[in-house]
Amino acid sequence: MRIFVYGSLRRKQGNSHWMTNAQWLGDYDIDHYQLYSLGHYPGAVPGEGTVTGEVYRIDASTLAELDALRTSGGEYKRQLIQTPYGSAWMYVYQRPVEGLTRIDSGNWLDRDAN
């Protein structure tokens, strides 16, 4: 299975160690999403924009670990998207974004430019 990551799970980011057993397939930009800063990590929500991330091949145990990290408490919901590497899971932020800082570039690595 595959996963699209756009924030702290990306290479050289704070939670990239969760992806140790994953195989990087390539970069990908997904349209019709907006990126917001939640502090130390981002949240993507449907909207007008593009979010930049990376697609990985992962195993079921890694997906279970990521689900525990991302979906507990209802902060994110896992959704299937289409990428050039095949369908992939993406964690979509589920809470209101009013008052949060939007990352206009859609790239978490550019967050300090806002």
TrEMBL record:
<dbReference type="InterPro" id="IPR036568">
    <property type="entry name" value="GGCT-like_sf"/>
</dbReference>
<dbReference type="InterPro" id="IPR013024">
    <property type="entry name" value="GGCT-like"/>
</dbReference>
<dbReference type="GO" id="GO:0016740">
    <property type="term" value="F:transferase activity"/>
</dbReference>
<dbReference type="InterPro" id="IPR039126">
    <property type="entry name" value="GGACT"/>
</dbReference>
<dbReference type="Pfam" id="PF06094">
    <property type="entry name" value="GGACT"/>
</dbReference>
<dbReference type="InterPro" id="IPR009288">
    <property type="entry name" value="AIG2-like_dom"/>
</dbReference>
<feature type="domain" description="Gamma-glutamylcyclotransferase AIG2-like">
    <location>
        <begin position="3"/>
        <end position="109"/>
    </location>
</feature>
<dbReference type="GO" id="GO:0061929">
    <property type="term" value="F:gamma-glutamylaminecyclotransferase activity"/>
</dbReference>
<protein>
    <recommendedName>
        <fullName>Gamma-glutamylcyclotransferase family protein</fullName>
    </recommendedName>
</protein>
<dbReference type="GO" id="GO:0005829">
    <property type="term" value="C:cytosol"/>
</dbReference>
<comment type="similarity">
    <text>Belongs to the gamma-glutamylcyclotransferase family.</text>
</comment>
<keyword id="KW-0808">Transferase</keyword>
